[in-house]
Specification:
alpha/beta; 7-stranded mixed sheet; 14% strand
Length: 365
């Protein structure tokens, strides 16, 4: 036998030995996996598979993403559902900064104890609004103090350079990191989704004035508004979702500017008489007139709380949206809301039993 044949034979024997070793290792690995997961089958992780989630925690790394959200006591279930949808659809290092009133802190802590979401509770003092809202008893009754929390973001988040503000009547279906990465143009303190954008313009509120332009929010007959030189038909924006550059916000004294127009309105009644329900929008429209960046329309698909929302959007479109907003009269925890089944997926039951979503099949006796 020649040296060459011997070398070939040795190589063949080595290859056979290698294959035998690999085969045995694969058999051992298969047995190990069967022992570890005898019944597990890969599939979709749903929101409330708690045993699975607790045993397979998502490792959250990277810079913190501050999310500011309000939580009035009668709507704590809404805030928790919104937060849960954000948390479960992202691996980002999210910190929820929850603004509530002092009397709601204990209730909120009890509910949050059933979650693993990183959070801070911020107590809002309504006294800060003294002199900034109307003294008219009928109007005061309609004012919800926490709706103004977005004006004070830099005070609540003193160390953050950038943050997201969200209304509580939203559900997030995309990765919040994508929204946080929204590019704000140089020198601009905030990004909003305009009411004329392609995704939500067909959802304009009917019968409540022209709610997609400035004239629907401000009284252009008032001298103070006239002097600003704003065009009445300028497309408005919805402040239920805000991506804010807090460094610019502070440098431009945005909070002080907003307070100025709140005080001015309290004295001169500058807001439109056809204004539906958002008294926080007009001062933002003034301060950010033609000086704000834009949010991807799919990150703020709104008007789901308006009459006929179910006819405006197809189920396929709603499923594709990154963020859904039930602004309007009908909320997803109520009986007559459209697409409430989506909200239900993210609702965390109230451990105290106080908050119950109302459903059509659960009519009052």
């Amino acid at each position: 036998m020649t040296v060459r044949r011997v070398n070939v034979l040795i190589l063949v024997l080595l290859a056979i030995a290698f294959l035998i070793i690999v085969h045995r290792n694969l058999l051992n690995l298969n047995d190990f996996l069967k022992q570890e997961n005898p019944d597990k089958v890969p599939g979709m992780i749903l929101p409330f598979e708690t045993d699975f989630l607790f045993n397979h925690k998502v490792i959250r790394t990277g810079d913190e993403i501050p999310v500011l959200i309000t939580a009035p006591e009668e709507r704590l279930g809404a805030a928790l559902a919104a937060m849960n949808s954000i948390y479960c659809n992202s691996k980002a290092n999210i910190v929820f900064n929850i603004v509530t009133l002092n009397e709601s802190v204990g209730y909120l802590r009890t509910w949050l104890s059933k979650t693993e979401m990183k959070h801070k509770i911020i107590v809002f003092d309504p006294k800060i609004l003294a002199g900034k809202i109307s003294d008219d008893p009928q109007k005061v009754e309609a004012v919800k103090p926490l709706t103004f929390a977005r004006f004070y973001m830099p005070l609540f988040l003193p160390d953050a350079e950038k943050a997201i503000y969200l209304d509580d009547d939203i559900i997030v279906q995309g990765d919040i990191q994508e929204l946080f990465d929204t590019n704000l143009r140089l020198g601009q303190a905030a990004a909003f989704s305009e009411d004329c954008d392609s995704a939500s313009s067909k959802g304009i509120v009917r019968g409540a004035g022209n709610q997609n332009s400035y004239i629907g929010f401000l009284d252009f007959k008032k001298e103070a508004i006239k002097k600003l030189g704003m065009r009445a038909n300028t497309c408005s924006f919805n402040p239920g979702v805000i991506v804010a550059n807090l460094t610019e916000w502070k440098q431009q004294n945005i909070t002080s500017q907003l307070e100025f127009w709140m005080e001015r309105n309290a004295k001169e009644d500058l807001y439109s008489k056809t204004l539906a329900d958002s008294i926080t929008t007009p001062p933002l429209l003034i301060v950010f007139y033609k000086h704000h960046s834009s949010i991807d329309p799919m990150w703020h698909v709104r008007h789901l709380g308006a009459t006929g929302a179910g006819n405006r959007y197809s189920p396929q479109f709603v499923r594709a949206a990154k963020l859904l907003h039930w602004n309007g009269h009908y909320k997803p925890w109520g009986r007559t809301s459209s697409f409430s089944d989506i909200w239900d997926r993210w609702y965390i039951p109230d451990p105290t039993g106080k908050f119950h979503p109302i459903r059509r099949h659960a009519e009052d006796n």
